[in-house]
Amino acid sequence: MRFTKKGGFAVNAAEQAKDFQIASKIAAVVNVFKGEFPDLRSDLKPWTNDPETREMLDPDSIDISFHFPGYSFRCHSRSILIQIRFHTVESEPRAIGLEVAGFSGLGRQWVFSTIENWQFVGKKEPVPDVQEKLKHCCRQTLEIFNRPNESLAS
Predict the structure, then answer these.
(1) Which DSSP string corresponds to 40-81?
(2) 120: DSSP letter
(3) CA torsion, points 28, 4, 84, 29, in degrees to nearest 10?
(4) CB 3.0 to 4.6 Å from 83: which of 99, 115, 118, 136, for a disulfide?
(5) In sequence order, what are the residues at sequence separation of 6 or more whose Cβ sits closer than 8 angstroms to the Cβ of residue 71?
(6) Using CA of residue 75, residue 127, residue 13, residue 153, what is the dihedral sign?
């Protein structure tokens, strides 16, 4: 699995899906989130190509956003951005964690990271059962990206 960089900055999930294996894993992640939150709409190109956005991007990540049809009071957001972070071990990229954030019209409402202590922090955090659903999605995402490519079909 190889991840593409454009001009030294990370690219959106749509731009990362250059081969069947990566595209299949990205699609599987979208299905995991839609399985828990059926009304979500996925966006594989959540970032615009402007200087301010490029400053924030991680060159070793795949970024996907999800949008509710309106404001979700249970999730306290309208959109969820996930950033799947990678680290190369023995020339093979491994998913090391996810950074997740919920956004409303008022900006970022909460953040969640699997890299530290798996805690939600913010102005308005999702309700407890939604937090558990998001944690489940993150566990599944790590499993999807860290299983061998040959087991993709199973």
Answers:
(1) -EEES----SSHHHHHH--TTEEEEEEEEEEEETTTTEEEEE
(2) E
(3) -10
(4) 99
(5) 77, 78, 104, 105
(6) negative
Q: What is the DSSP letter of 91?
A: T
| Alpha carbon distances (Å) from 58 to 20, 26, 84, 133, 152 | 23, 17, 10, 25, 26
pTM of the model: 0.80
Angle at 7 between CA 6 and CA 13, to 5 degrees: 25
Residue with the larger pLDDT of the pair 48 and 24: 24
Nearest by Cα to 26 from 50, 45, 8 = 45
Structure tokens at 9: 């900055």
For residue 152, what is the enclosing H or E element? none
What pLDDT digit, counting tens, does each position of 79-125 carry? 999 999 988 777 777 899 999 999 999 999 999 999 888 999 999 99
